[in-house]
Amino acid sequence: MTGNTEKENVSVDYFESGHRACGGCGPALAGKLIARAAGPNTIIVASTGCMEVFSTPYPETAWKTPWIHSLFQNAAAVASGVEASLKRQGRDEKVIVIAGDGATFDIGMLCISGMFERGHDVTYICYDNEAYMNTGIQRSGATPFDASTTTSPAGKLSNGNSRPKKDIPAILAAHGSPYVATTSIATPKDLMDKVKRALSIKGPCYIQVHAPCCTGWGFDGCKTMELGRLALNSGLWVNYEMVNGVVEKVKKVKRIPVDDYLKAQKRFRHLYRPQENKDEIAKIQAIADSNAQKYGIDIPVKK
Amino acid sequence: MLQITEGSHAVAEAVKLCRPQVVSAYPITPQTHIVERLAEMVADGDLNGEYICVESEFSALSSCVGASAAGSRVYSATTSQGLAFMAEVVFNAAGMRLPIVMTIANRALGAPLNIWNDQQDSIFLRDSGWMQIYGEDAQEAMDLHFIAYKLAERHDVLLPCFVCLDGFIVSHTFEPVDIPSQKEIDEFLPAFNPLHRLDAKNPMSFGMYATPDCYQEFRYEINAAMIRAKAAYREIAAEFKAKFGRDYTGLVEGYRLEDAETAIVAMGSICGTAKDAIDEMRDAGEKVGLLKIRSFRPFPSEEVRTALKGVKNIAVIEKNISIGSRMLGAVGLEVKDAVYKDSPNIFSYVGGLGGRDIRKRDIKQIVQWAKEGRNDCFFGLREELLK
Amino acid sequence: MALNVGAVAAPGHARNNKTGSWRVFCPTLDTAKCNKCGTCALICPEVCITLSGEFYSVDYDFCKGCGLCAEECPKDAITMKKEEK
């Protein structure tokens, strides 16, 4: 693991033990890192979802900063109101949204588009575990191509989810967002740096955090970081920063075949059993190759 | 001093005088004149607040939830389809006990699409936990906003409130209105003092979820607050009367009910027409009166029963229809529950839907029907269209 | 449990829920191997590994035994042992 040697004795956490996430939960780690990076002078607005449910059954909140949840699809609008109120009161707390991919890619798009178009000073963070995990692993607009979920199951006539992942960062960059970034729980320092950077930039910023879900994807909870790394190293997830719509920084990797990532998860098991589905795997490899080309992630290999 | 003012502009003036820090609304007919005027006030610096130009009613009320939780007095306005679109947030704001005040310029709900007045929109949210008070004319609609903020924000209440006025009939009509001064309203309505607010200095979690261990108790509490709101309303309206001279102290208000054998029960602007019709019927020797329902939530059952004591026939004018209910109208069901021990004849008469005019002769006919014991039904139907 | 108006609660209550009871495997630190890099504490989703004195220690009231710390330890200083109950 590289770049993770932040000295723990100087870190203060605003996300507490006792929450009800699964052991090895990627989103729980994301929540902890986001709260740690943002610090105490932050108001967190949450959507309904896994993180909301595992962290706030009344009265057992795991949050030590002010935190509010209203509905599934309105976190961006609630945050807009919080920000307007703080502005009017002359207060200096930062406003962060933490929402899942269902709340962000699908049901919350209207409110998100409104918030970004109006230019509220809010950092919107999506923890992306690539399906509706809270309700039992149903497909969302963030579910990757060919992943088997309970509403996009693999079957005799199906290879799983038939559509590629929606490109939300591009959509929000097109709204004129000054800062759009992707990161992963597998790169915790990068995640925290991006949260801090977004909070230092005025206006609506967006961060999408890859947050592997052991229960939903089908892997052992001790492998959560490893899965995040495999996604990055295969090119199926890319860490990058877009400033004013231009990609500035990209995490480069020595790419591995997508096989290494896919084989590690039960949601892609149908691509290997009863026999290897080479055509479908080739399509997924093509997605990774296209990402690699688009973002220039390949570290040149000397021949 | 009286000024000739459009109903919507009177409401906007009232809102400005209440000093909301955040106004968030989405335009929809017939609410538009209210929010346009508020936007002008913000643009000119007459209203010292944020106007959030949201992309939908859903975000309008959602942003009010955020701003209210952060400690600001907030305002929104909508109607009909817009209110239906924000319905999920309507329940949510009440459950979170946020004292949001929202004007409803009452309008029919589609389909078929219809922009004209009835009261189906606010009534369909009767179980949401919002208080609902109805103004008969521009003056009352305006004044109820001052009362609504003070009532909603009281710590023994902490419930959001609809202030309802009939779309077009009140919102777009010019009437003489007495507009209080800022000083008077500042004396009547103190700054918002939230019980809890989002604050880094005292961090709290808002909008947590409740398991079966405590959910029911939260619902019990919200209902208890709604019951407390009756007495709180009376106190605040009495204070308003002492300061401004206008009397809204009753959650209901009787008109010529003394010795009445037949009573009309109604909400909103139709009460004006009803009073004229009653005057004419009284002149002709008929013992008839009106009970105006000012507060539909909380519903003042005791006051209704007291006011209608001794009345033989009750005709409820319903600008709504509870489709599939035997009694047809939502107001009639409440009134019937209030008075059933006194055994009067009580009927719901549905009419005025989607802007159909209700005339004095319609009201006289309803009175006649009630006396004859004609069962719950529509009035003012164009029978020729139903063949 | 007190009912606050609107289901509002102050921080600190989650710690009443001792998730350590979920644990099947228990992380144990070999201090001879540990180089105190802090990776375990950084990536623990339970926020239950902290520096106490010279070395990092696990709060077993909350550790769910996921094994992420053992998996990620660059010095293999943490081993997961079957919980003795």
Tell me what you see in this structure:
The complex is a heterotrimer of chains A (303), B (387) and C (85). Chain A has 303 residues and is of the alpha/beta class. Chain A has a single domain (11-295), classed as 3-Layer(aba) Sandwich (Rossmann fold). In chain A, 36% of the residues lie in helices and 15% in strands. Chain A has helices at 26-38, 50-55, 75-89, 101-107, 109-118, 168-174, 188-200, 214-217, 224-234, 258-262, 278-295, and strands at 42-46, 67-69, 94-100, 123-128, 154-155, 158-159, 179-184, 205-210, 240-243, 246-250. In chain A, the strands form 2 sheets. Chain A has an 8-stranded mixed sheet with strand order 2-1-3-4-8-7-9-10, with helices on both faces. In chain A, strands 5-6 form a two-stranded antiparallel sheet. Chain A starts with 25 loop residues before the first helix and ends in an 8-residue tail after the last helix. Chain B has 387 residues and is α/β, with parallel strands linked by helices. Chain B has 2 domains: 2-244, Thiamin diphosphate (ThDP)-binding fold, Pyr/PP domains (Rossmann fold, 3-Layer(aba) Sandwich); 252-386, Rossmann fold, CATH 3.40.50. Helices cover 39% and strands 19% of the residues of chain B. Chain B contains 13 helices and 16 strands. The termini of chain B are far apart. Chain C has a domain at 31-82: Alpha-Beta Plaits (2-Layer Sandwich). The radius of gyration of chain C is 15 Å and the shape is elongated. The two termini of chain C are 30 Å apart. The mean pLDDT of chain C is 96. Chains in contact: A-B, A-C, B-C. The interface between A and C is large, with 41 and 44 residues. Strand 2 (67-69) of chain A pairs parallel with strand 9 of chain B.
